[in-house]
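REVIEWER CHECKLIST
Item 1: Sequence provided? yes
Item 2: Single chain? yes
Item 3: Sequence as submitted:
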Amino acid sequence: MVFVALMVHDGIERWSFVVVMADWANIINKAVTAFYKKVVPFNPIVTRSSTNCDSLIPWRFRSLSFFSPNCFSSNNLLCRLSLSTLSLTLTPLHPTFLFILHLAGISLFQNPTNLYLGQNPSLIYHSICIMGETKDETYEEELIDYEEEEDKAPDSVGAKVNGEATKKGYVGIHSSGFRDFLLKPELLRAIVDSGFEHPSEVQHECIPQAILGMDVICQAKSGMGKTAVFVLSTLQQIDPVPGQVSALVLCHTRELAYQICHEFERFSTYLPDLKVAVFYGGVNIKVHKDLLKNECPHIVVGTPGRILALTRDKDLSLKNVRHFILDECDKMLESLDMRKDVQDIFKMTPHDKQVMMFSATLSKEIRPVCKKFMQDPMEIYVDDEAKLTLHGLVQHYIKLKEEEKNRKLNDLLDALDFNQVVIFVKSVSRAAELDKLLVECNFPSICIHSGMSQEERLKRYKGFKEGHTRILVATDLVGRGIDIERVNIVINYDMPDSADTYLHRVGRAGRFGTKGLAITFVSCSTDVDVLNNVQSRFEVDIKQLPEQIDTSTYMPS
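Item 4: Structure as written out by the authors:
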């Protein structure tokens, strides 16, 4: 039995991936012909040894190779070097794609014993139903995870796609694995090495569409793996060309840029020909210019100011960029100065490219700004704005006077069990002073703030991430995007200035759905106002810290 991989166009600028059996081609031909015989001429599905399909213009099409059982290695991973040269072209127009996709989906489930792909067919049918906004109840009970045939796929939580709640009762976020996304074997191997087993909800929603090159704007809770979405999607699509930058990732801080670069390096371990580089301020620009002269990276991560400087000096060319990504996009686009830098950089990239933007907080006001950079983006809001606080994160506050904060902090650090803790303050001077006080009290503390050199900041960040110290005092410099998996307690020594900042701060604990504890000091009426705003906006009840707190509620088991 031979399988055919199709890229199907829906008539409104979207492609969908589907797999059908080759001997269904005649049935699909007849179905399409029935739709079009009285409307327009129809070019039937054809097999050909060439991808030159100019004769089909203006029909939209894309060709992929035939897949047969001997194209797969023993562990079910696709051996891309063994693909047949034959290809199949399908050129549908709306609304026939609905019927075609539906037939293809049914064929998969009526012939489950003939499946050679190492993937869960429920994912394919899931995509079919989302695109067509249709659902066949007959098969809802039958969408079995073929990796664990005795377990039915559990329901998943509905996400918002294009602002509409999507019904997904037939595929669960925990029933599928990363193999279902048909990622490169090299990526799957790196994922296994990293210890990941199942994609998170945001990964499940985004990756299947992102790897098709669609523009994506995504909001999801902190710590749910948004970085892996654009890292894996970019690595899946990229075809490294010597001397050309294919992907550009912009973020607002040096620490976040460093972390994103590290993620690209981690997942590209088995892609030795792919080069990644990071550029940010605080480092002599000559170092970066020399690096670019010696070897041009395929993926560039950086802060807008430094990237703009390198492009204006003609040291960095963006004319071949195919993937343009903004992490913590709201932070970058809300600031007019940073937005201008982003716009100037954006103009230096080709018009035809994929644009992806991510953040834990995307206000309704900033979304239209994001969309101006995109073409018909798929919008994914994994949670309503009112429900963005983290599952598994226990939140409390303490009312006290300003002069009581140091004593109370000392008591908390003595009494609480923790792996690592981050203490947020509102200024550079307070960070330095509090860190000095904690060290004098024999607490293993370090601080990170914008007042120190870039080299020292990265050295301390790396040391804390690797677990060399357990207490970090920081400004909001590390309040967004920084992922340190051992952190299970966040203390707001100073109340943040907004509900959004609060959300990003406490998101440093409870990463990827794990347990965590957030404690906020409230010492004035302004603090009370911010706390009330947090509770009303995110619909969360933050109670005063009790005298005794159960360790099991915030310590991972």
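Item 5: Key structural point noted by reviewer: The CA atoms of residues 467 and 486 lie 8 Å apart.
Item 6: Recommendation: ____
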